[in-house]
Amino acid sequence: MPTKEEITEWFKSLQDSICTALEVEDGKGVFVEDNWVREEGGGGRTRIIQNGKVIEKGGVNFSAVYGDVPSFLQNDHGSEELKKHTFYATGVSIVIHPISPMVPIIHMNVRYFEMSNGVWWFGGGIDLTPHYVNDIDAHFFHAQLKKICDLYDIAYYPEYKKWADDYFFIPHRNETRGIGGIFFDRLNKKSKEELFSFVQGVGSAFAPTYVELLNRNKNKTYTEENKQWQLIRRGRYVEFNLVYDKGTKFGLETNGRIESILMSLPLNASWQYNHIPSSNSEEFRTLSLLKKGLNW
Amino acid sequence: MPTKEEITEWFKSLQDSICTALEVEDGKGVFVEDNWVREEGGGGRTRIIQNGKVIEKGGVNFSAVYGDVPSFLQNDHGSEELKKHTFYATGVSIVIHPISPMVPIIHMNVRYFEMSNGVWWFGGGIDLTPHYVNDIDAHFFHAQLKKICDLYDIAYYPEYKKWADDYFFIPHRNETRGIGGIFFDRLNKKSKEELFSFVQGVGSAFAPTYVELLNRNKNKTYTEENKQWQLIRRGRYVEFNLVYDKGTKFGLETNGRIESILMSLPLNASWQYNHIPSSNSEEFRTLSLLKKGLNW
């Protein structure tokens, strides 16, 4: 059975390999590392890339933290008994904002959690936020995720795809953040070996999938109008992350390292009052595709 | 005793007079009005100014809504009995984002709430968010607020100034949004006449105070570096409004008119990873003054 140390080491190696793959693909930007220590136990390696040739701003963050079980989990289980126990949480979190509006924003998180009472689980997800939805890319992206899922359980993809549609959703806009992907949490119904292997599969799929999407789109030309639209889409990304994202909320409420948490926000974003794209525009088409339940 | 109709009419006239004063001062921008209707009862007049000579984006919104008492208030009072009652809420909300980083952002809200069980209260506040803190302006701003408060009760200013320091605060940054101002809520310990008069005093102080600040600063020169700093400060403004502001949260959670609620967000904002101004810079000085309890 994989130990927390083995899982932790694997997440570190995943961070390394993803950073390398993204640097190679970008061709200019390099990740700068900030090591940080958590007062209550553990810490992390925040790695930020800024002003690359393709990537404008991105973070590939590893962390492993531990300590007393936080009160929000005690409440979750309605049990005072958890106060006696400690927790250990480790994972990798990624958000990449490209320069070009023709290149999609991507997010991934893979994580492992355990408590000293023996309870453990895995969680994670990947989702894609194109500024302009490209059907072929959307199909490719979802096909990659389905392929990984199907290796483990053909029930995974439909279930985790729906979970992503529901999670990466902005209720006050009644629109999804992007074209979704997969999302899963508190997986512990199969063996730890098998679930760790699945999470490794998801983590390992990130770099080749996103590098392919970068490759396909990074040299496309775009207009100032496309750039403006990108800024508006980024505004929605900010709205999702600050208002709804559980990882962000948890980080802000538990005195996490702010700059590591908010690396997910773009370099620039824009809010125009009541911006409505003209019908038949590409922007309008993209908006019409930001909904749950589409089969890519 | 002022009726809800009289209070509502006065808020409408306040919206009118503030819009006129800001248009005159700006010299180019004009407010565009969107009337909206709330399905459950009432509606509003959203007035937005964009691309003025001095004001980049701003909203001066009036609303008057009514209906069944919302569940969040029922919980607040821990009483099932409120379900039988209806509420009426009216007010004016303002946020102005200037083009120049030398001109401060301003926010004001004045509001009245009543329920059919006879419970009523006033609330409101004004706070100033300079991109660069100017001590003379900060003193002027607070002196104006103190002058209004002192006309009614010399206990108001210190109490409401502290309330503003506590409310307009970004815990995850450990900094105040700006230099504060005054904030008050659920005022009903004095007569309705007197409290309405106080709220009228606060509302009426807005235009002359902000016009004076616009006048003092609108023609100052600034650099690209100043502009970048403005974008970063605006990012913090977005963080406060989306993560902490009660009006915004309430609006998002109760299916309010999104574009009216989010008019408070700036046209553009920026997040740079771990941006730390160099010591002895004006930016550093401003950061050092974003804390509670300063006596302007």
Q: How is the CATH topology of chain A named?
A: oxygen-dependent coproporphyrinogen oxidase
For the report, how would you describe the main beta sheet of chain A? 7 strands, antiparallel
Rg of chain A is 19 Å
User: What general outline of chain A do the C-alpha atoms trace?
Assistant: globular
- Number of DSSP strands of chain A? 10
Helices and strands of chain A, in order, run as HEEEHEEEHHEEEHHHHEH
Largest interface, C-beta within 8 A: A-B, 29 and 30 residues
Question: Secondary-structure map with pairings?
Answer:
Two copies of one chain form a homodimer.
Chain A: H1 4-26, E1 32-37, E2 42-50, E3 55-68, H2 71-76, E4 86-98, E5 105-115, E6 120-129, H3 135-152, H4 156-167, E7 169-170, E8 175-176, E9 181-187, H5 192-217, H6 224-243, H7 246-253, H8 258-261, E10 268-270, H9 282-288
Antiparallel strand pairs in A: 1-2, 2-3, 3-4, 4-5, 5-6, 6-9, 7-8
